[in-house]
Amino acid sequence: MERGLTGTYTPAVAGGVKCQAFIPNPLPPAPPLTIDNTLQQRLSDAQVALGRLDAISALLPAADLFLYSYIRKEAVMSSQIEGTQSSLNDLMLYEMEGVPGVPMDDVQEVSCYVSALTLGVQRIREGYPITIRLVRELHQALMTHGRGANKSPGDFRQNQVWLGAHRPDEAVFVPPPANRIAECWTDFEYFINDLPETTEPVIKAALAHVQFETIHPFMDGNGRLGRLLIPLILVQANILKDPLLYLSVFFKKHRQTYYDRLQQVRLTGDWESWVRFFADAIAATANQAVQTAQQLNDLLQQDKVRLLQLGRLSGSATQILEALFRNPMINIATLRQHTGITPATIGKALDAMEQQLGIVREVTGQKRNRIYAYTAYINILNQELN
Description:
Elements: E1 7-14, E2 17-24, H1 37-54, H2 63-81, H3 88-95, H4 104-125, H5 132-142, H6 181-192, H7 201-215, H8 222-236, H9 248-253, H10 255-268, H11 271-307, H12 314-326, E3 329-331, H13 332-339, H14 343-355, E4 360-362, E5 371-374, H15 375-381
Antiparallel strand pairs: 1-2, 3-5, 4-5
Helix pairs in contact: 1-11, 2-4, 3-4, 4-5, 4-8, 6-7, 7-8, 7-11, 10-11, 11-12, 11-15, 12-14
């Protein structure tokens, strides 16, 4: 349904140039969403896929084994959308105090995304609502290091910004002026916390994502934070126990459609087309996550059988393999913490796992402070990132 412009324009000045800034109407849309048969089917498919995803713990020995790596996969893709060159391997090397193959700022930005998401889930589980206080805390965590560290982490912007052109008067989109952010956020906060009426969680996440990107409250990091809010909303609503839904892969693959749908909402009020796209993103992403979990589980079981070839070392190697399943790029010190095995035995088992079975690969080429990668595991995670 085309409702017309979903906000109002107001005169603004950005970089000394006059322009027209857009102030969105409060949510929910008026008139309400039209849920026809097509949209209802898309939403139902999304709900079914989320149900499978929430049951992922039944597919793996422990859900946190999958969560560790999948959070990092999302962090990489979300940051790549913003232009970083960091890969999953770079991030894991950095976390093991290795040297990434990209500029340090890139990998630090990705690492900060992991920290922000982890903090967000912790706060939601502690009972915090999604409010200005929480979002500012998440933004501060997101922007602690990297290129955004000097762009007022945790504070709403004080300047007018614009998107999509070198001049604000030619921009694709100009968000609200800085002095209107507070009122926009107040309305947004009411909606996201079901005041005065409740919104079904998947629809809420869809509408909230557009509204957050439209308000564009911070100087930097709005895209990453807007994507991060999606799994937090679903965890808060108890749709997911763990934040395993990450849409950045889908949004990057369909990048132009994503931007077109966002702008179409603002200009024509066609929320339904956006919600259909969002529901498709959830269904595709959740189904892919379940498939990935199955592949990783199969890999673990197959490699456990292969380790029996190592004879007396097989017991230690199995413990190492389980630690690698939690941290697929790891050093001997971390393995000792996870397994309690002596460094000498860990070294022998890793040598056997590398030279006899090809399960791991040493990635530094050093004689000291070596880091080992569980290559088949990382390759499965990288399937959608390449």
